[in-house]
Every structure is written in structure tokens, then in C-alpha cells.
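So, does this match?
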Amino acid sequence: MLSAGRLARRRATACAAAAVATALLAAPLAAAPEAGATAAPEAPTLMIAPVDPLLSEGESLEVTVSLDNPSMAVQPATTVDLLLSADPISTRYTLSRWFEGQAIVASSAVASVELPAVAALGRASETVTVDAEALGLDGATWGAYGLAASAPSLSGATSVVVRDEPGESSPTRLALAAPIDAGVGSSGLLDADELERATEIGGDTRAALDAALGAGATIGVDPAIGASAEALGDEAPEAALAWLERADRDDTYALEYANADPIAQVRAGAHPIEPLGIPREGADPLPASAGSIGTREPVIDATAAILQTGDLAELSAIGTVVLSGANLDEELTGSTPSALVDLDGVEALAADAQLQELIRAASVDDEAMAGHARAQAMALLAVITRERPSDARTLAAMLPASSQGSSAAMLADLASARFVQTVGIDDALELEPRDATLIAPTDPERAVGAELVQDALAQEAEVAHVASIVEEPRTLLAGLRLGLLAALPDAGRAVTQADRDAIAGLGDAMSDVRDAVQILPGSTLNATGQSAPLPIAIENRLDVPVQVVLSVRPSNALVTVPQSRVDVTVAAGSQERVQVPIEIVGTGTVLMIAQLHTPDGVPLGQLQTLRVNSQPTIETALAWVLGVAIVLLIASGIVRSVRKRRRGQAHGDLDEPTPEETA
């Protein structure tokens, strides 16, 4: 903690403090090549972040100092000095250089904190409070001030704190879209407990809605939340019903079901992939639209994608597209412009690339990293506001989906800052657009999401071929479609290995459906007599009854099957034993080949081979021998007659044989 003696000594040695700051910010640059030549990832990393990046008149500052030790050696205890810049950072360029460690502006040492020894692969964090007098910002110019940390044998760290006294400056308006998704599993629905935990006080979904409404953001809601409540019927939690009522507003828009990525669907030529119905236990599926709320057209998060002209045209027909400013080919001079752009006749919102990245980073689970990103975002907005204090402008940004991280702390900072005014997406669409064009970079990952979509649909199509085994195919396919939507890549982020694993798992689940009705292996049957029943067991692992057609054929003529096709109904989750009559003709071993089909003739499951040892009775054997003998006699007579005719000895010949014929 900061002591009064240390503070007095630092005030008396401002020049020395400035030299320390210079050394602090120059050290990362000087050490970078050497670190690259050695084991840079093993070096301990210092990080600082204000608990609250906004400071008002007379307010103290809390700063969290963290030290990560990725090495296998213990990092000794150390003293970290905190320094503050004398003047606010005035431009975006200077702010970027500050965070890169290339600007030398910190000149006042304001506090120090003692960090304990850090074990190998460990982290230590301490929070220090710097009072307003030590900071010396009361009465100073408003804006973002550089905050730096210095420690012996460690690379320095930088952050920022914003003096929030903008005076007459016009606040920067920030139009926000807040997608709130359900985070459903492979079933595509939430059960009662999951739904209640998400929407009750303290639940993630409840917190996301509260924060978004408090910021005036445009809310996007995953239809899976309402669909889950509708499927539960009277068992739906009161918390979920109250949540849906609060979220159902005129400016609320619907996400794709399970927040599936519309960009991947468009590139696959498959948009929209919608539910086929909402399954519910013990009843027919609900309509696909069950539980949908909101009437606004969708807001499409394309901030993590590289769009081409064709993509933009198709997406703009679906809703409002928010893309990254890094996707634009334009030369900006002067201050940061508003978000609305005209791209060859198609209007879209261009999120400031740097701000969008920071807003996403502020939602990560790591508290220190999230706090650092929040401070950077607030500093960037303060610098943007200072660019043109008298002119208002409207930026736009997409919050990450609620299941991808919490934006509550970021929204709280934005709501309390006096130099920022958060609004809905529609506010950004009211200004005059600026002209721009899309860049055309190579995108090696462009087709990845579309390929996963096509793979999932192909697997679903295979199951659809056999869906006629149930009385109501929609009942079977509706649940599979929800699982497919839950497995597709999520909107607003790049495809991950988890997405690939989900599609692979979807294939396994659909294979289970295709193979859920099977003929069970049987033991060898010893069949004697003229006829015998051939027992065949059929198993149905589905939770609904199925109707199948069983076909049986022998591998040789020792056995015949009078009725080769049999219609069979198998109850849900059970086995059905079918007796197929066979007629025994001869003695020997016969392989009976059994196959299941759907009612419309599509093969189902695998062939099953059953072994039959046939032994006819004596009457059957005698009849068989007599029949064979008669056939042989007739054949012999025909052969003899043919031979006699050729020799001219057959009775009834009209002509005498010629000498040549006689010879």
C-alpha cells in the first residue's frame, strides 16, 4: 500500500519519477528483440487495470496489479510503482502508441504495491487505492490519462483512467445491439431447471437483459428461450415467463434459432434453416414459431467476418448488417465518422474496428483482462469525443452473445460515463451515410462455416429418407432439426474446433436414429417337416412406435418363403418377435437373408443373416425323389426322341432316308 512518507518523497522528486517512466516505457521496446531470441513466453507478465476506469472530482482510484508467472521458477516478491501521465491523451494515434509501450508521457509516481512471491505457473494480484490528492486530477482537463506500472526486472505495463468531467462536450452516441442467446445443448431446448436458473435473479440471461435494457440497446432474443417455455407448458417457470414478457418489445429482434450463424447459411445457399416444429413430451410438436417474440428485422453480426459484395447483398435482404470498419476500403481523415455507410447502394453499419475488438475483450471470464479492456474502451471513447467536442456522432457496436461472455460491467461503465450516450441500433440508421467500398482480401476460412452447414443438412437428409417408419414423421424430424440448429456455428464469431466436434456429434446422433430399428442376431434354427416358423426379433430404440416392412429370402432352393414381405409394428423402446413361415423342401443348410425397409421401400439398418438346418419328413422326401425321377424320365424320353429323329428311325417319317443319311 502507498505510505505517506513514500508519497512525500515522490512529490519531491518529480524529475526522478519522469526518468523512471521513461525507462518503464522504453524497456519493452529495448527488450523485445532479446526476448524474442530467448524464451519470451516464459517471462513473468505484469498487468494493471483500474477497478473502475471512470473518475469524478474528488474520487479515489482503485487499481488491480497482477503478475502472471508462466515459468517453472518462483518469481520473487517485488514492489510495483504506479505512474500517471500529466496530461490527457489527445489522439487515437497517441493512445495506440501508449498501449504499445511506445509513448513516453507518464511523469507522476502516485502509488506502489507490494506483490508477494509467485509460484511457478501461478498468478498474484493485489489492489491498491490511490486517493484523489495523490492522483492530482481534481480540476485537471477531462479525458484519458495514461496509467503505467514499473517493477525491477520486469517489463512495464500500461493502462488508462478517464477523468469523467466532459463539461459542454457533446457526448458520443454508441448504438448497441445485444444478442441474448439460450446456450442450448444438443436437444435444442432448455429443461425447466435450466430455464429457471437462466432467467431468475442472478441468472446469466436475466443479467444480460437487465444490462441491455439499462443501456437502451436493441435486444436480440434466441427463439429457443420462448420455445422451451412453450414446450414445458404449465411446467414453465414463472421467472422465464416474466423474462419473456419484459423482453418482448417492438424493437426486439429474433436471432436465428440457437443463435446459428446466418452468414454460414447464406454462403451454403441454405438460409433460412428454421425449426420444423417444437417437440414436447407426450403431445404433437408445436408450430415452429412457438415462443417467438419481437417484431424488428434481425441485426446480423458480421463484425468477425470478411464480407464480399454478394454476401452483403444477401444479408442486407435479411436485416441490418453490422460489419467491422476493417472490412472497408476508405481513407479517413480528421475525426472518427458515424457508423452508417453506403456500400455501392447497400446501407450497413460499420463498427469502429478497434472499439469493437475492445468490447468483445471486455466480456472474457478473466477479470483482470476484462477490466483492462474496459479501461481501454472507455479511454478510446473519451479520445473520440475530444476529437470534435461540439459535434455529435453515432458509432455502432455489437455486444457478444450472452453465452459468449458477460457484457454487464462494460454496459455499466457506458451507462455511467457522461461523455457517452448508449442508444439502440435504429438511432445509427437515422444519419446520412458516408460512401465506402468493401475490401477484397483473401479469406482462407470463408467456406468453413458453409461446409459445416452443408454437412449437417446432408446428414439430416439421410434420416429424412427413413422417417416414414413413424406414423408422424414430423415428430421425429422436429427434434433432429433443433439438434442440428444447436450444432451449427454460432453467429458473431469464427468457426472453432468445438463447432466441428458438434457437427461430428450430430452425425453420430443421426446415425443412432437411422440404426435405431434393427433385426437382432438369432441362433441357428433346426427346421424339420413340411413347414416351420422362422423367428425374427426386431428392436426399436426410438421413443415412438415404428412401422417397418420385413423381407426374408433364402440363399438356395432347400427352403421357400411363401410370404416374403411382412408388415411389422414395433412399440416404442421395445422388441417385437415375428414368426415368418417357411416351407422345407430339401435337406441341408440354408442362409435366410432378412432386411428391414420403410413403408415406402427405403432399406433400413443392416442385413441380418440367419442360419437354418432343414430336414424334411419322409413323405416330403419321397415326394421330392418321385418328382425328381419324373423329371428325369421325361427329360430322358425327350433326348431319345430327338436322337431317333436325327437317325430317321422315328415313327411317322414321310420320306425315306437318303443314302447319305443312312450312312
